[in-house]
From TrEMBL:
SUPFAM superfamilies: lambda repressor-like DNA-binding domains. The lineage of its organism: Bacteria, Bacillati, Bacillota, Bacilli, Bacillales. It comes from the Bacteria. GO terms for molecular function: DNA binding; DNA-binding transcription factor activity. GO terms for cellular component: cytosol. This is Transcriptional regulator. Residues 30-87 form the HTH cro/C1-type domain. InterPro entries: Cro/C1-type_HTH, Lambda_DNA-bd_dom_sf, TransReg_Diox_bact_type. Keywords: DNA-binding, Transcription, Transcription regulation.
């Protein structure tokens, strides 16, 4: 953990920092998968049935998506959304670490 995150943990709490890191990991996985598929944010938004601004805000880490939105995105990316408490073992699944 970086010095900044250690200091921030003392202010906001370790759970809050861990939550932010998790959200960042999910956002990065979504963006990476979208780019691998050569898909624009608009195309992903259309396929998922959400506004383009939602995709942009998720990828930028400005919003915490609801599980329903994550499921729509995973379907649009044709990528399983798995919550099992493990890290991605090199496959293309979206994992949530708990």
């Amino acid at each position: 953990m970086s010095d900044f995150l250690k200091r921030y943990s003392k202010i906001r709490g370790a759970d809050h920092v861990q939550s932010l890191q998790l959200e960042g990991q999910i956002a990065a996985q979504i963006k990476t998968k979208r780019q691998t598929l050569k898909m624009s944010q608009q195309k992903l938004a259309d396929l998922a049935g959400v506004p383009k601004s939602t995709i942009g805000r998720i990828e930028a880490g400005l919003t915490s998506p609801k599980v329903e939105t994550l499921l729509k995105i995973s379907k649009a990316l044709e990528t399983p959304f798995i919550i099992d408490g493990t890290l991605d073992g090199g496959n293309n699944n979206l994992y949530v670490q708990t």
